[in-house]
Structures are given as structure tokens and as C-alpha cells.
UniProtKB/TrEMBL annotation:
InterPro entries: His_Pase_superF_clade-1, His_PPase_superfam, Phosphogly_mut1
Active-site residues per Swiss-Prot or TrEMBL entry: 8, 81
Gene Ontology MF term list: phosphoglycerate mutase activity
UniProt: substrate binding residues: 7-14, 57
A GO biological-process term: glycolytic process
Domain of life according to the entry: Bacteria
Record protein name field: phosphoglycerate mutase (2,3-diphosphoglycerate-dependent)
Keyword set, alphabetical order: Gluconeogenesis, Glycolysis, Isomerase
Enzyme Commission code(s) on record: 5.4.2.11
Species assigned in the record: Kosakonia oryzendophytica
Top EC category: isomerase
PANTHER family named among the record's database cross-references: PHOSPHOGLYCERATE MUTASE
Family classification: Belongs to the phosphoglycerate mutase family. BPG-dependent PGAM subfamily.
Length: 206
């Protein structure tokens, strides 16, 4: 089974550096441009189905992809972003100023750290890994697209690449970037991650 792991396009809170988690914000103008660039970049993939987080920003990307490829679109709660609990709606700069230890643990050091009222990255990432492995049982020879979120993608990619989540901060996945991997018997056998070459022109003209 081949999987394309896609991050949603830029939102207003992404642009302003506000922690989203299970909260949402509208796409920016740039986000719409990123979506169009991603659709063009993925044109050669024979995507059979798109699975998306039901959170608005990911669902919009899922709708665009499913419409482009004329394939089914399925929402699944397992694909949601990590829940950041009480930190949701807070500027990340404020979190770093007021709670520097917690901010470092959350974004760089400790996948087991659980924000107050939220969930750990380790837990959030494992629910997506479990979802991917479940799909392999019914779609072993298909190409699937999974639309999810930035923080949790880092944990998933670390688990697929290294077999553990410790180095999750290495696996940044920019808005509207994608990763490609193949799964055989529940194991990842190839992986290209954080592909964003289709966004270069947009970056130059931001």
C-alpha cells in the first residue's frame, strides 16, 4: 500500500503563530494557493481514496484532493491534530515566554508530555499509525491519501522512519507539503518526507 501523508494548507492561526490543536481558523489567501500547487504536484498519483481529519482546515484540503482525483472522501477522528488542551488559542510565543519548559517539551523534546487538558504527541501519533495499519488490511495494493496536521505528522514520520518517536522535531512538515511511503505487512519500507518543492515559487513571492 502506498500512502501520501498531506498536511493542510496555511490558516490564519498558522500565519499568526497561534496554537490550533482541535480548534480551527480559516485558510489564508496563501493557503488557497498552496492547495492549488499541491494538486498539481500530485497529479500523477493514482489515488483511490482520501481520508481526512474532520477539522475544517484538513477537511477543506481533503475535499480539494477528492474532487481533483474524483475519488471518495472519508472523515476519521483518528487523523485529528494532537489535542493541546489549555494551550489552544494561545500564541506559541506566549507559551514559550510564560511556560518555557512546557513549550520545549511540547514542540521539541518530550513526545510523552501531555498538555493540561490535552493529549501527548506519542498518543496522538500512535492513533494515526494504528489507522494506517488498519487500512492496509483492506487496501494493500492501493494508493491512499491521508490529510492531517503538522505536529502529529512529525510524530508519525519519526515512528515510520526510526521506529521510535524521540526525534520527532526533525520531521517538520510545512503547510501543504506531503510525504510518500509504502507499507508492507505493517512495516514502512520506503519513506520520503516533507516534500515541498511545489511551494518554492509561492515562497519566493510571499
Amino acid at each position: 500500500m502506498k500512502v501520501l501523508l498531506v498536511r493542510h494548507a496555511e490558516t490564519e492561526w498558522n500565519q499568526r503563530g497561534i496554537i490550533q490543536g482541535h480548534k480551527d481558523s480559516p485558510l489564508t489567501v496563501r493557503g488557497a494557493q498552496e492547495t492549488a500547487a499541491l494538486l498539481a504536484a500530485l497529479a500523477s498519483y493514482p489515488i483511490a481514496c482520501v481520508y481526512a481529519s474532520p477539522l475544517g482546515r484538513a477537511w477543506q484540503m481533503g475535499q480539494a484532493l477528492a474532487g481533483h482525483f474524483d475519488c471518495p472522501l472519508v472523515a476519521h477522528t483518528a487523523l485529528k491534530e494532537q489535542a493541546f488542551g489549555h494551550y489552544e488559542g494561545m500564541p506559541s510565543a506566549q507559551l514559550r515566554d510564560e511556560y518555557p519548559y512546557e513549550a520545549e517539551a511540547l514542540f521539541a523534546k518530550d513526545a510523552a508530555f501531555c498538555p493540561p487538558g490535552g493529549e501527548s504527541l506519542a498518543h496522538a501519533s500512535q492513533r494515526i499509525i494504528d489507522f494506517i495499519q488498519q487500512q492496509q488490511q483492506t487496501a494493500a495494493h492501493q494508493t491512499l491519501c491521508i490529510v492531517t496536521h503538522g505536529q502529529v505528522s512529525q510524530g508519525v514520520l519519526a515512528l515510520l522512519k526510526e521506529g521510535n518517536i524521540d526525534n520527532f522535531s526533525r520531521y517538520a512538515q510545512p503547510n501543504a507539503s506531503y510525504s510518500v511511503f509504502e507499507m508492507t505487512e505493517g512495516q514502512c519500507i520506503t519513506l520520503r518526507w516533507g516534500i515541498a518543492t511545489h511551494l518554492r515559487t509561492l515562497t519566493l513571492h510571499k
